[in-house]
Design a protein that fits this description.
Elements lengths: L6 H4 L4 H17 L3 H4 L4 H11 L6 E5 L5 H7 L4 E6 L2 H10 L5 E5 L12 E7 L7 H14 E12 L5 H13 L4 H6 L2 H7 L2 E9 L4 E8 L5
Parallel strand pairs: 1-2, 1-4, 2-3, 4-5
Antiparallel strand pairs: 5-7, 6-7
């Protein structure tokens, strides 16, 4: 199976999907070199995710939309076997350069068509990527994550939380400046219901980054794909 569908094939989707893939390719080719600087404030969250996910040296982990690999490296520090995937070659070049773990690999792949067998990973994770995606791509990504997670395994989603107070509303306004198209739809979506439809039962949710982010964990109990 090819790891990434050619861009011209991915552009056969809806107008919204074509725009997403084209923008992803164009923006991250330039933005990759600044990505770690921009995301520095969420650095402490990476280890929190490792603890919440229950990752240890026995785990096999998939980090979806890995970017420059910060979350994948946090998993690998526990001795886990980790694969990080991303659409952006520019991001993956930086991730590979930063990698010092023999049990961590990075490869190009589309999250809507993961190049792995069913039930391949004990833990699958996606961090601050779903809010950027059109609804159709977001839901296919979650379905694929469920498919490659072992029965009883863990799915972890880290992303922006619906705002409740002044600080969280300020964060939301900031995010809307550059994510106006899909952020609002993501915030309003019933993430628990989406997970349940693909066989993931949510077992925990916690706020982090002063409430602006949430970490949601679920267990795969089974699904029809």
């Amino acid at each position: 199976m090819n790891s990434v569908q050619p861009l011209e094939e991915r552009l056969n989707g809806t107008d919204e999907e074509r725009e997403y893939y084209a923008l992803n390719k164009r923006v991250y080719a330039t933005f990759a070199r600044f990505y770690d600087l921009v995301t520095f404030p969420i650095g402490k969250l990476r280890r929190e995710v490792v603890v919440v996910a229950g990752v240890d040296a026995r785990s096999r982990v998939l980090d979806v939309a890995t970017g420059t690999g910060a979350q994948a490296r946090a998993f690998a520090e526990q001795g886990a076997e980790v694969v990080g995937i991303d659409l952006s070659d520019a991001m993956l070049r930086i991730a590979r350069r930063k990698n010092r773990f023999p049990h961590l690999t990075f490869r190009p792949a589309d999250a809507t068509a993961l190049p792995f067998e069913d039930a391949s990973f004990d833990v699958t994770c996606v961090s601050f990527a779903l809010h950027e995606m059109p609804r159709s791509i977001r839901e296919r990504t979650i379905k694929e994550m469920a498919r490659v997670t072992t029965p009883g395994g863990t799915v972890v989603i880290i992303d922006y939380a619906p705002p409740r107070d002044g600080f969280e509303n300020a964060v939301a306004r900031l995010v809307k400046l550059y994510e106006r198209d899909h952020y609002e739809d993501f915030i309003r979506s019933d993430l628990r219901a989406i997970l349940r439809r693909v066989g993931i039962e949510v077992r925990g949710e916690r706020r982090s980054l002063r409430g602006a982010a949430r970490i949601m964990t679920g267990s795969r109990f089974g699904a029809t794909f």
